[in-house]
Amino acid sequence: MEKIILTGDRPTGKLHIGHYVGSLRRRVELQDSGLYDKIFVFEADAQALTDNIENPEKVRQNVIEVALDYLAAGLDPERTTLFIQSQIPELCELSFYFMDLVSVSRLQRNPTVKTEIQMRGFSGESIPVGFFTYPVSQAADIAMFKATTVPAGDDQEPMLEQCREIVRRFNNIYGETLVEPNILLPENAACLRLPGIDGKAKMSKSLGNCIYLSDSADEVAKKVKTMYTDPLHLQVNDPGHLEGNTVFTYLDAFATDEQVSRLTTDYTTLQEMKDHYTRGGLGDMKCKKLLTAVLQEVLDPIRQRRAEYEKDIPAVYEILRKGCEVARAAACETMDEVRRAMKINYFDDRALIEEQARRFQN
Ligand code: TRP
C-alpha cells in the first residue's frame, strides 16, 4: 500500500515557532526522508470559515501568509503538494455522504468539539451546523487522499478516531474503498504545546505572546528578553527552577547539545546548563542569550527563504494553484471509486442500464 501523508492548518494567522516545533519541522523531515510516496499539506480555509463566520477576510488574508510560512520552513512544492481546501469541491461531496455515517450524539461526544463549543460560548442549539459537523468534513479531507499518516498534535486525536470510524463504516457498507489513517504525534514532549513567551499555556495571537516565523532577528531578540522565567530566581546565586520556566522549555524544544557546546563557553550539553541553573549561580540573561542564538540559527534560513518568496507573490499563488490541480486530480480519482462503490455511477454502470431496460421490456 502507498504511504501517504496528509496534514494541514487553518489559515487564521501567521505561523509561529510553536507551529514550527509542533508540526512544521517534522513535516519537512518527513518530506526529506523520502519514505513517503505522496505528501499533501493543505490550508483548511473552509474549516477556518466554520469558526470565522463574521470575519472571512481574516481567512482570505492569511492564505498567503501560511503559504509563505510553509515554503519558508522548507516545504518544497516539487515534493509536497501544497493546496487549499476550498478549491477541491469533491471534499464537499464526500463530506455529504460521510454525514450519513455519523450520529449527532457521536459528534457531541467528540472532546475537541466539546471544548471548542464551550470556548466559543455557543449555548444549546445555537451552534452553526457547519461548525458542529467540521469533524465530518475533516474526515473527508483525510479519507479523500487515502492518507495513511496524519502528523498532528494530540488535540487532533479525536478527529482521527472519528475519521477511522467513518471510514470503517463506509468500507463495511460499500466494500473496501477508503483507508484508515494513523496519527503521527510530535516526539519531543516540549514540542506538544509550546507555551507563549509570557509562560501562558498556549501561544496565541490574542494574548500577544507569540514569536512568529516571520519576526525579524531584532523582534526575536527583544521578545526573548521579556520572556517569563522563574519568579523565585531573584539573585543569580538563588537556585533556579526549570518547571514552567519558558526559557528552558524553549531550549528543550529547539537546542541541540551541539549548539549548546558551540554557542556557550561553559557547557557541552543542555543538561549541564540546567544543572548549573538549578544549583544556583547561573543568571537568566545568560540562558536567554543562548536561546536567542539558538533561535536565530533556526530562524535565519527560514527568514531568508521567506524574503525570497515575498519578492514574487503571484508566483506563490501559482504554486498553490498547481498544488490544487494535483490534489484535485487525486480527489477526482477517489470520488470515482467512491461513486462506484456506492453504485451511484449510473451512467457508467452498463449492467444497471441493461437490467433496467430488460425489466421494462417484459
Ligand atoms: N483541524 C486542524 C487544525 O485546526 C486542521 C485540519 C483540517 C487538519 N483538516 C485536517 C489537520 C486534516 C490534519 C488533517 O489545525
Written account of the structure:
The chain is mostly helical and 362 residues long. It is built from 17 helices and five strands. The strands form two sheets. The protein has a three-stranded parallel beta sheet with strand order 1-2-3. A two-stranded parallel ribbon has the order 4-5. Strand 4, helix 9 and strand 5 form a beta-alpha-beta unit. Helix 4 packs across helix 8 (134-144), helix 4 crosses helix 16 and helix 11 (217-225) packs antiparallel against helix 15 (284-310). It is elongated. Bound molecules: tryptophan. Residues 6-10, 44, 47, 138, 141-142, 150, 152, 156 line the site of tryptophan (TRP).
What's the gist of this structure?
The protein has 362 residues and is mainly alpha-helical. It contains 17 helices and five strands.
Strand portion, in percent?
Answer: 5-15%
DSSP, total strands: 5
- Major sheet, described briefly? 3 strands, parallel
Order of helices and strands: EHEHHEHHHHHEHEHHHHHHHH
Helicity, in percent?
55-70%
- Tell me the distance between the termini: 46 Å
Query: Which parts are unreliable, with pLDDT below 50 for 5 consecutive residues or more?
Result: none
The structural class is mainly alpha
Rg computed from alpha carbons, rounded to a whole number of angstroms: 24 Å
Bound molecules: tryptophan
Number of helices: 17
Q: Which term fits the overall shape? A: elongated
Strand order of the largest sheet: 1-2-3
Averaging pLDDT over every residue, what do you get? 94
